[in-house]
């Protein structure tokens, strides 16, 4: 039987595992439930992909990030590993092809969004699979104590019922001890192995910089550093404003947020990864699944709402192990802004019930209807119709989700996909197609592989450039090919969805429990205060140690690299120089008084701390430069 390292070498080309990876791999191969706490960039995917190739059956991976599951499946296919994914917005033909890949082609890894686990048909299909391992990625989402709790994750327990003998591997980059314990409890883990990688990143330098004019500080920092950088903000509008300012100042920058078109996001991401653009100004939508090793600087323009999010975003710096900097900009207004957001995230219960009622009306769901259905939901249009604030609606929808009444899937975006649905030889006998449609058909056959077996992501922009047709003409040609039943074409889309897990209730019967409202408000408030405390300088000894302690890790020594440690070193050095400069002055002062001089007079004449003067006098006596007689100091002969 192959060893894990043999599989690693065969498919990934690595000669050895990173720290903890092999321990986790061997744990799940032995059949043990396992929790892996690995910081961002620690290589979590290898810990389940390697054993998946060794097990005689299917590994089911639950992940909330559709874009990430697509990227991982694409990467696995490049390594000749058969993998498929399922999520709520797939059409019936895509689901059928994925099922065929599992049952007929022997796919080894099945990715699914947690929402799919509510679908009884999908659960029935899972029962037909030989499930040998269950993987829960972003496992903190299952804990109500976690910073990103998602009720749909609680459905993972259904997987345990389907495959009771399959070990569960839970993975997360950010979990406090309380969250880690809750993950094990929620997943019904039996005597789990827990592997915790140190949260210490020895190559990162954590810095908090006080500034009331942050835009100037960003330019100041970037103009004095080199290398690829990320500037994180909490506003889509601000991403563009800062990027434009940096470009005007001669620093190449681009911006990124969830509202951009998919192809534009992909182009900007590639420009940044290749080094064409130095700085990416982005919301927290940027970073997941982007493994760029040489990021030298991460700046937080706005203070994140929790140390979990701060640590995860900071962890995108220095993945190559070389020195990198993480700078948090802090102003006098930041603490009040974060505390205000806690209140904004918990609107009154009457408002929550009103938004629920209006959302159901907007979707034309009658009382008692809507069970287990998915609806397109345009939040901006909804807010415009009912004259409601977007921020308040999002907060209410989030609380309704945690109470089990609905789930808002925000801005799920998909590339255009195409698949040829005729046999290859039939292409030679086609007739009646327009010149444009023929041109597009010939071009996609040249540009893309695998079109006869599965849906393949296609780009109307690239096809347009290759054929000299407009993007509109490319789109219309695809529609023509679809009508001719030559190509199955799914145009790109970005559509938020609303999932209704239970029939519509009367608003008066809605229950927003204390565990969702009061308790979570307290949890969020505690996280905000921890973030504010980290940014403060009062009584703090080391930034990294504050982070480590938050995640349940104790360390005696200080990092020596953060701004607070450096300040102490600088002050210590200055104090030492000041003391050394005082030695000849003290000797000369005493020499001019042959009858000796007492300590009170000496300390009064030197404007140094009394303890510093006493320390130097003791040193001079010990070294024989002075002697004491009747409490007076004299020069030694």
Please report the total strand number as a whole number. 22
Q: What low-confidence regions span 5 or more consecutive residues with pLDDT below 50?
A: none
The helix tally amounts to 24
Order of strands, widest sheet:
3-4-2-5-6-1-7
How would you characterize this protein structure?
This protein is of the alpha/beta class and 637 residues long. It is built from 24 helices and 22 strands. The strands form five sheets. The protein has a seven-stranded parallel beta sheet, sandwiched between helices. Helix 13 packs antiparallel against helix 20 (518-535), helix 14 (349-362) packs across helix 16 and helix 22 packs across helix 24. The chain starts with a helix and ends with a strand.
Short characterization:
The chain is an alpha/beta fold. The chain contains 24 helices and 22 strands.
Which helices and strands occur, and which strands form pairs?
Elements: H1 4-12, H2 21-29, E1 34-37, H3 46-54, E2 58-62, H4 66-78, E3 83-86, H5 92-103, E4 109-112, H6 120-127, E5 131-136, H7 156-162, E6 168-172, H8 177-186, E7 193-196, E8 204-210, H9 214-223, E9 228-232, H10 236-248, E10 253-256, H11 262-274, E11 279-282, E12 295-300, H12 307-314, E13 324-330, H13 334-344, H14 349-362, E14 373-376, H15 379-386, H16 390-402, E15 407-414, E16 416-420, H17 435-447, E17 456-458, H18 460-467, H19 471-483, E18 487-490, E19 493-500, H20 518-535, H21 543-550, H22 563-591, E20 597-598, H23 599-605, H24 610-622, E21 626-629, E22 632-635
Helix pairs in contact: 2-3, 13-20, 14-16, 17-19, 18-19, 22-24
């Amino acid at each position: 039987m192959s060893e894990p390292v043999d599989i690693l070498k065969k498919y990934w080309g690595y000669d050895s595992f990173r720290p903890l990876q092999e321990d986790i791999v061997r744990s799940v191969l032995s059949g043990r439930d396992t929790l892996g706490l690995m910081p961002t960039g620690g290589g979590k995917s290898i810990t389940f992909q390697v054993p998946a190739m060794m097990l005689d059956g299917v590994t089911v991976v639950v992940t909330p990030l559709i874009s990430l599951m697509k990227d991982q499946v694409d990467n696995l296919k490049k390594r000749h590993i058969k993998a498929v994914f399922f999520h709520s917005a797939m059409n019936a033909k895509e689901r059928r092809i994925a099922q065929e890949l599992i049952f007929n082609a022997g796919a080894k890894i099945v990715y699914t969004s947690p929402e799919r686990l509510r679908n009884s048909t999908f659960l029935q299909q899972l029962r037909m699979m030989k499930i040998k391992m269950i993987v829960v990625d972003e496992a903190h989402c299952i804990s109500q104590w976690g910073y990103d709790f998602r009720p749909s994750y609680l459905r993972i327990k259904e997987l345990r019922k389907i495959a009771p003998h399959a070990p569960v591997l839970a993975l997360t980059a950010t979990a406090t001890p309380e969250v880690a314990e809750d993950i094990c409890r929620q997943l019904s883990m039996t005597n789990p192995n827990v592997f915790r990688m140190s949260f210490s990143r020895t190559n990162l330098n954590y810095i908090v910089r006080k500034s009331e004019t942050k835009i100037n500080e960003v330019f100041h920092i970037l103009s004095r550093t080199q290398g690829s950088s990320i500037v994180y903000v909490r506003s889509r509008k601000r991403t563009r404003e800062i990027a434009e300012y940096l470009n005007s100042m001669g620093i190449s920058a681009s911006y990124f947020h969830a509202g951009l078109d998919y192809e534009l996001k992909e182009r900007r991401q590639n420009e940044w990864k290749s080094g064409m653009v130095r700085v990416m100004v982005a919301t927290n939508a940027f970073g997941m699944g982007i493994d760029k090793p040489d990021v030298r600087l991460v700046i937080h323009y706005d203070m994140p709402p929790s140390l979990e999010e701060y640590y995860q975003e900071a962890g995108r710096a220095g993945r190559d192990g070389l020195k990198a900097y993480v700078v948090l900009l802090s102003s006098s207004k930041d603490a009040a802004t974060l505390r205000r957001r806690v209140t904004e995230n918990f609107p009154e219960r009457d408002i929550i019930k009103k938004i629920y009622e209006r959302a159901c009306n907007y979707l034309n769901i009658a009382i008692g209807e809507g069970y287990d259905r998915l609806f397109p939901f345009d939040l901006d249009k909804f807010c415009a119709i009912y004259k409601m604030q977007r921020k308040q609606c999002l907060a209410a929808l989030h609380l309704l989700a945690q109470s089990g009444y609905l789930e808002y899937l925000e801005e799920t975006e998909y590339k255009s996909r195409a698949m040829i649905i005729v046999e290859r030889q039939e292409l030679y006998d086609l007739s009646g197609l327009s010149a444009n449609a023929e041109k597009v058909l010939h071009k996609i056959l040249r540009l893309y592989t695998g079109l006869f077996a599965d849906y393949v992501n296609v780009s109307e922009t690239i096809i347009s450039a290759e054929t000299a047709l407009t993007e509109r003409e490319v789109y219309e040609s695809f529609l023509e090919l679809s009508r001719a039943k030559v190509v199955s074409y799914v145009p790109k889309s970005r559509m938020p969805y609303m999932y209704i897990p239970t029939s519509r209730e009367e608003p008066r019967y809605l229950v927003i429990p204390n565990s969702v409202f009061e308790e979570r408000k307290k949890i969020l408030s505690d996280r905000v205060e921890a973030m504010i405390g980290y940014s403060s300088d009062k009584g703090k000894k080391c930034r990294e140690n504050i982070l480590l302690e938050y995640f349940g890790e104790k360390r005696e020594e200080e990092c020596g690299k953060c701004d607070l440690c450096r300040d102490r070193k600088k002050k210590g050095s200055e104090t030492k120089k000041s003391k050394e400069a005082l030695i000849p002055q003290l000797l000369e002062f005493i020499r001019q008084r042959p009858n000796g001089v007492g300590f009170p007079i000496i300390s009064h004449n030197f404007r140094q701390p009394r303890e510093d003067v006493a320390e130097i006098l003791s040193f001079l006596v010990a070294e024989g430069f002075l002697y004491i007689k009747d409490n007076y100091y004299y020069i030694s002969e």
